[in-house]
Amino acid sequence: MSIRLGTAVAVACLISGVAAAQTAKPTDPQIAHIAYTAGQIDIDAAKQATSKATNKDVKAFAQDMERDHTAVNQQALALVKKLNVTPEDNDTSKSLSKQATDERAKLAKLSGAAFDKAYVDNEVAYHKAVDAALENTLIPSATNPELKSLLQTGLKIFKGHLEHAEHLAATLK
Questions:
Q1: pTM of the predicted structure, to 2 decimals
Q2: Is residue 72 within 8 Å of residue 59, measured between CB atoms?
Q3: 130 burial class (0-12, 13-18, 19+ CB within 10 angstroms)?
Q4: What is the pLDDT of residues 70-100, one digit of tens each?
Q5: Which of 11, 29, 84, 123 is deepest in the core (most CB within 10 A)?
């Protein structure tokens, strides 16, 4: 129950943090940092799941998350280097990082089927929040066409992640 509550709080904070950024319209360097941070959070969660999960499908899902988010983050790093842009830390990315650290600590206390279910449930909630933030705030706010294109590509990939996570969540007890 506490993991679900923690997930709900993290999702609410992600959405409200990006909504607050929407009022101020985040800059491209801020968007780049938020997007990279969100990807790194899922990479770190996937690494934790790869080592702790007991269900083979959950392990395979975690490996997919690590691979895909690493690839998108590498593309993001290459793009900011090409554009000579320094990603700018901001309240949204700081809040995301803190929430992710707290969530990983909660998951670390779980094992077996309880861990597997909590990880996958968190992935469902996290991808819903990230997809919404990309679609409603980050992509519309991006001014650089290459950054916008990378975010749109990421959104397509992450929508697939959400579908996979929802399907997997339905199979876990």
A1: 0.86
A2: no
A3: buried
A4: 999 999 999 999 989 899 999 999 999 999 9
A5: 123
For tokens 């959950």, name the residue: 58
Q: Is the CATH number of domain 2-171 3.40.50.150?
A: no
- The structural domains of the chain, with segments of one domain joined by +, span 2-171
User: How many degrees, rounded to 5, is the angle at CA 18 between CA 11 and CA 35?
Assistant: 90
Q: Which residue has tokens 């706010």?
A: 141
Q: Are 32 and 76 in contact (CB under 8 A)?
A: yes
Number of residues assigned to the chain? 173
- CB-based burial label for 69 (10 Å; 0-12, 13-18, 19+): buried
> Residue 143: is its pLDDT beyond 70?
yes
User: What is the 8-class DSSP label of residue 1?
Assistant: -
Whether the predicted pLDDT of 7 surpasses 80? no
Cα(156)–Cα(34) distance, integer angstroms = 17
**Cα atoms in the Cβ-side hemisphere of radius 13 Å centred on 134:** 25
Closest-CA residue to 24 (of 95, 94, 90): 90
- Region 98-117 average pLDDT: 96
